[in-house]
Amino acid sequence: MRIYLVNPPMQSNHIHATFYSQTESVDITGNPGFIPNLALPTLAALTPEDIEVEICDETVSAVDFDKDCDLVGITGYVTQARRMFELATEFRRRGKLVAMGGPFASLSPRRCRPYADILFTGEAERTWPAFLEEFRKGTHRDAYHEAEKVDVTKTPVPRMDLLHNDLYTSGVMQASRGCPFECEFCDVIVYLGRKIRYKEVDQVLREAETLYGLGYRGVFLSDDNFTANRKKATQILEALRDWNHGKQPRPVIFGTQLSIDVARSPDVLDLCADAGLRIAFVGIETPNKDALKEVKKRQNVASDLADDLHELMRHGILPMAGVIVGFDHDTTDVFEEQFAFLQEAGTPICGLGMLSAPEGTALEARLEKEGRLIANRDDFYTETNIVPKQMTQAELSHGHRWLLNRLYHPEHFLERIRTVCSHWPSGGAAHLGTTIEEAITIREGLLKSYAGLGPEFRDMPDQCFQAVRKARAPSAFAVIGQALIQYKHIVALSMKAGWWQPELATSADPWESFEAPRVRAGA
What number is the average pLDDT over the span 496-507? Predict the structure, then answer.
């Protein structure tokens, strides 16, 4: 029996990339893929050894519609939905049996049902083996639903060996699932629950060792909120610290997702840095406390968010901020307020989006009652499925575009890099995550790549590294290099998609070029 598992590329505005990929930095990294999908290697690990499994990630290799197989399995998030449907339609047209599962299928089963012969909803650790057993006998059902949250201590080490590991920049592993918070717009808690479930320490170490053996020296912990349970996270971090110290002189640089309340636990931040966790995506959303309370993101209300981000930097951890505009408390002043806050905070990479209501979330239920949902909107990077409360959709879209261009103007990016360096701990070794030769190659690639963006970008890499040297913070070299790689991708993708408008970047007034009548603040 042969199974062909496919992960589609993420899409934004009909382009096979998003701000969270690195397709436009392949000239620097040499890798078309950034971080692999973890679901398909996990399914492969759950599959009996006598069944042949092949994984295709369209980010790094072309899909084979004529693959000789008994089953095609397709996974994906909402940002992959359009391509998921295209793939399923074409495979079925060619007579292939198609199974569909993953986060999008679990949250939007009614939309996926017409495209799937077999539909999986929920986590797959129990339903996938049950299906395979029935499939062998020719008695399988057309739907498998996991109503419970699975015991992740029984999850096998993913079959990462089935991937094209030489085509990714970073490896991926997972220590926990779920998040205890109740942010109104979050679909993670709908899909994976609010009770956080951790793997055993030895499981985590086996996954880390597997990735190290495959050549990865950068690894993303794809946990939804890695340090939510301080006790469990501490146990894992202590083990990773000891494991990583044994990998000198080529230790791993880890990244993950954290909530900002970890800034109030300096002992945990010390342990994160000591374990090699140097990059963290943090959902900041907005400095507007009324907006945070509105969507029940209470963990961000209690302190000064800019200082919290600086605290991460002071511990040698580079935060990358998730930012949202379009909350009900947001007026047309929010774009300038967000820009001022983010420049003060100094997070080089800001994942900017308009507030959207994913299917199944509390936000979707509330806005549906209020008649403020827009149907058939899947591109949550450049559009939204909500009707904003204190501005028009045109104003929200224009303000979002202005903020994107303003944040990624070279001068403003460099200003944030200098802020990082001003808070970064001085001294220490240069954590490159590469050999000296590889680091030199990456620097040369950065210089050539940035020169290709235009004359205003040409000197940015050296200006950033000069800021590191001036601050005498050699341990920041690797993370600043990562920020430069991501910046190049974001700017190049924006240019390709038609979002890059330099005249907006240089205008301090977001509404200088906006012709439609505006809803004034407080109106």
Answer: 91
